[in-house]
Amino acid sequence: MRLVSTTTRRRFLSLAGAGIAAALAPGAGRAHDGPHRVEVGISAFAFTPRRVTIRAGDTVVWTNRDLAPHTATADEAGWETDRLDRGQSAAITFATPGRHAYFCSFHPMMTGEVVVEPT
Amino acid sequence: MKPTLSALALAGLLALPAAAADKMNDLEIAHTAYTAGQIDIRYAHLALAISENAAVREFAETMIRDHSAVNAAAGALIAELNVTPQDNALSQALATGAADKRAELVALSGHAFDCAYATNELGYHQVVNETVAEKFIPWTTVEPLTELLREALVTFRVHEGHAEHMVAGLKCGS
Ligand SMILES: [Cu+2]
């Protein structure tokens, strides 16, 4: 798994409602009993890693490294990031266990998956 | 050359590799790369004004979004380096070819327009990508410019693949 540096992050999106809790506090959770944050890079028109497995309550942070803008958008309605320009990040916290397939709404051949396991 | 590309669709494009035979400097390359992006954005606006095909309109929106982002990055680099890109024969050939192509496209509508636009997008990205990969990237001497071209090429190659699908989906024949 390639972890993307968070130092250039400019923006977080905190999405409320429909299965999405508020973003967790910075530095939270190193042990399995606390929420985690998992980084997904977007570069060369691909989500890296393409699939991440987290636990309910964990947060996924997408960071775009491409010149072209991208999004992470759920196949089935429920969640989506804003447009991410280069260097921008968005965080989404997953409360509901299950497999969440997603794609880029600008380049739909770009696909990824968030697997949420029960706590 | 792909058989789907008619000689007509490529008229105006063929000037590109010929004019690019002479090695260009960094400022000329920056000018031409920027111009090529602006041309594609203009084609896309024409497509949004004329086409009623969902796939064509989606492609055009992607071209506007992505080429605007690439050119914004190019503009930022130019400002950072405090240089002025140089107009040149290749930029002029591209602009002339594009004006001719727009005149041809604007006279069309419906499926004929969609096919002409899509085929031109495929041919345009093929020629531009080849020029960027084989000429501009090796020729540039300013590292941030070379890096920007490399990153831009990643995007343009995705567009070329997308254009190929669009052409195939439209079933334009030959
Ligand atoms: Cu994308």
TrEMBL record, chain A:
PROSITE patterns: TAT (PS51318)
Domain of life according to the entry: Bacteria
Gene3D superfamilies xrefs: Cupredoxins - blue copper proteins (2.60.40.420)
Domain EfeO-type cupredoxin-like: start-end pairs: 30-116
CDD domains cross-referenced by the UniProt entry: Amicyanin
PANTHER family recorded: BLL1555 PROTEIN
Name of the protein: Cupredoxin family copper-binding protein
TrEMBL record, chain B:
Coiled coil stretches, renumbered: none
Transmembrane segment boundaries: none
Recorded superkingdom: Bacteria
Keyword match Signal: yes
Pfam hit, one: DUF4142
Signal sequence annotation: 1-20
Domain DUF4142: 25-166
Keywords, sorted A to Z: Signal
InterPro entries referenced in this protein's UniProt entry, alphabetically: DUF4142, Ferritin-like
PANTHER family, alphabetized: BLR2558 PROTEIN
Identification of the protein by name: DUF4142 domain-containing protein
Annotated organism of origin: Thermohalobaculum xanthum
